[in-house]
Automatic annotation (TrEMBL):
<feature type="domain" description="Cdc37 C-terminal">
    <location>
        <begin position="288"/>
        <end position="374"/>
    </location>
</feature>
<dbReference type="InterPro" id="IPR038189">
    <property type="entry name" value="Cdc37_Hsp90-bd_sf"/>
</dbReference>
<keyword id="KW-0143">Chaperone</keyword>
<dbReference type="Pfam" id="PF08565">
    <property type="entry name" value="CDC37_M"/>
</dbReference>
<feature type="compositionally biased region" description="Acidic residues">
    <location>
        <begin position="365"/>
        <end position="374"/>
    </location>
</feature>
<feature type="compositionally biased region" description="Polar residues">
    <location>
        <begin position="379"/>
        <end position="388"/>
    </location>
</feature>
<dbReference type="GO" id="GO:0051082">
    <property type="term" value="F:unfolded protein binding"/>
</dbReference>
<dbReference type="InterPro" id="IPR013873">
    <property type="entry name" value="Cdc37_C"/>
</dbReference>
<dbReference type="InterPro" id="IPR004918">
    <property type="entry name" value="Cdc37"/>
</dbReference>
<feature type="compositionally biased region" description="Basic and acidic residues">
    <location>
        <begin position="62"/>
        <end position="81"/>
    </location>
</feature>
<dbReference type="GO" id="GO:0051087">
    <property type="term" value="F:protein-folding chaperone binding"/>
</dbReference>
<feature type="compositionally biased region" description="Basic and acidic residues">
    <location>
        <begin position="1"/>
        <end position="12"/>
    </location>
</feature>
<protein>
    <recommendedName>
        <fullName>Hsp90 chaperone protein kinase-targeting subunit</fullName>
    </recommendedName>
</protein>
<dbReference type="Pfam" id="PF03234">
    <property type="entry name" value="CDC37_N"/>
</dbReference>
<feature type="domain" description="Cdc37 Hsp90 binding">
    <location>
        <begin position="119"/>
        <end position="281"/>
    </location>
</feature>
<dbReference type="GO" id="GO:0006457">
    <property type="term" value="P:protein folding"/>
</dbReference>
<dbReference type="GO" id="GO:0005737">
    <property type="term" value="C:cytoplasm"/>
</dbReference>
Amino acid sequence: MVDYSKWDHIDVSDDEDDTHPNIDTPSLFRWRHQARVEREEEQKKERKDVEKGTEKVQNALEDTRHLLEDLSTKGDKEGAKKAGAKLKQLEEEEKKWREKEAEIEKKEKQTPWNVDTLSKPGFEKTIINSYEKTEEEMTEEEKEDKMDKFVKKNEKLIKQFGMYKKYPDAQQFLVDHPNLVCEETANYLAIWCINLEVEEKHGLMEQVAHQTIIMQYLLELAKSLDRDPRSCVRPFFTKMEKAEKQYQDAFDDELNSFKERVRGRAKVRIDKAYREAEEEMEAERLARIGPGGLDPADVFETLPKELQDCFESKSVGQLQACIANMKPEDATYHMKRCVDSGLWVPGGGEDKEGDEDGASAGAAAEEEEEEVYEEIDKQTSTNLDDVD
């Protein structure tokens, strides 16, 4: 037989016409509709709170069961007794939450139907199933883009996980943040280790390396069992806390091997940085080389103190006086090296723009330069006459 009882109470008063003439009908309809919407929102919130409470108790139950199992294996009777008492208390709480869920379902069934729940369109929306590419199907650009988005969103949490030293703390953190159990987290931690080694933060590198191997072990365990990595968190930490020698030795070997690889990668990066710095310095040095193939910095260092003062002061008059007081062969030697290195540019005072003031200044500078060379030639000639 068909059950027609569900049609006994239907709330369709939003658009009724039998209202008192003195009542503002549109306003009345609006108030009724608003009150109904608010009731529905309260019911949704109540259901959400109950579901959240139930989920929290279920997680606590699962953790306590694992704890009780571990304590029983280790022979800790006192700890097992406390864990058993807590488990019983959590089971009572779960029962209460289940009763609340049943009450909400009953209340929802008794709620009168209304204009929004009586019927729904047959085709409310079109759903196209999205296809997410696997790592093997992604291009390098797609992988980099995925990694960048993940890091921007979770970098702070990943670094927080990298700092945990105790297994229970790390386990609880991953239980609270299951989205971190993935390949992107392992990659970020590995790169962070190399950066820390380059910065010579060796102790911190070893700490993060330990957490990196934990993440890699979780991923490998999930792959071997063909399971979601998030479901492997508790089994992995249970094995580590039991400290099975074979399992612990394998973990330590992988950790030591990883740290050696990190040190090797860091050394390669440091050597590359040194080479690039040397090449840059060499390029800068070659850019300074003068027309005669000499480095102005090297030439300047070999000049007598009085000549260095002349170039620092940029005074041609002072340079003329200094040349006049030097031996001709010394003056010729040093000035030739200055020209070859670019410290002294004959005719360098000329103005390229060609205006009158610039031309006058250029001519004056050229005249002074000629006087310097004439002074050198004069001293050389005098010296030759004395020899004759």
